[in-house]
Design a protein that fits this description.
5-stranded mixed sheet; alpha/beta; single chain
Amino acid sequence: MKIAVASDDGITLTGHVGRCEMFIVFDIKDKEIINVEKRLNSFTMHKTGNHQHGHHNHEHHGTGRHAGIIGGLKDCNYLFCCSGGPGLIDDLRASGIKTLFTEEMEAEKAVKLFLDDKLESDPNRQCKEHNN
């Protein structure tokens, strides 16, 4: 199982998934973290420098405007973040990636809490900035 965490600094969770600097990807086996990888965010259309009026710097693996992030996280089962738009969440879910919104700010702690079935997820923390 792999868990991606949206982050700006490689340590803590960030608010807006599409504008994060990176995704910390935790590889899990038998409820233990066996590897941690940091993937620079070069695949979301919202990332500064990647948004070019409909031309996105990514391969098309998903559907619609979230194809880049879906392709970049296609091997992940979960995405942890502080908030995200409902359109992104729906597209991720349709691609088999479940999103969890949490107030826990430390990435590794959030993953460990999840593995112990103690991570609180609040589905009402969707981004109010946009409708899709």
